[in-house]
Amino acid sequence: MIKFVLALVPALWVVAIAIIAVQNATPVSIRWLAFQSIEIPFGVLLAFGAAGGMIAAALVLVVLSGKPLKRPARKRN
């Protein structure tokens, strides 16, 4: 079941990005402090953000745990 959920989350992101990109094709730019990015379509920006978030989460898991997460042991009575 957990593998299904792990596969479903990125699949839903791809579908959401595709729908939003088709409906909102106007170029946007990001402004942060004194910096401004080039204008790119909102769907592309959303895709980069989602991919960056997934990569950052994977790196945090690797750095903090040093190994993949395991299920907690069940107590036996």
Structural summary, described in words:
With 77 residues, this protein is mainly α. It has a domain at 1-26. Helix content is 60%, strand content 10%. It has 2 helices and 4 strands. The chain has a two-stranded antiparallel ribbon with strand order 1-4. The chain has a two-stranded antiparallel ribbon with strand order 2-3. Strand 2 and strand 3 (35-36) form a beta hairpin. Helix 1 (2-23) packs antiparallel against helix 2 (42-65). The mean pLDDT is 81.
Summarize this structure as a short list of keywords or feature phrases:
two-stranded antiparallel sheet, 77 residues, 2 helices, mainly alpha
Q: How would you state the average pLDDT, rounded?
A: 81
Give the class from helix and strand content and strand pairing. Answer: mainly alpha
Shape estimate: elongated
Low-pLDDT segments, ≥5 res: none
Q: Helix segment count?
A: 2
Distance between the termini: 26 Å
Strand order of the largest sheet: 1-4
In what range is the share of β-strand residues? 5-15%
Determine the fraction of residues in helical runs and give it as a percent range: 55-70%
Major sheet details: 2 strands, antiparallel
Strand tally: 4
- The helix/strand order is HEEEEH
Nearest-angstrom radius of gyration?
Answer: 18 Å
Give a brief outline of the structure:
With 77 residues, this protein is mainly α. It contains 2 helices and 4 strands; from the N terminus they run H-E-E-E-E-H. The protein has a domain at 1-26.
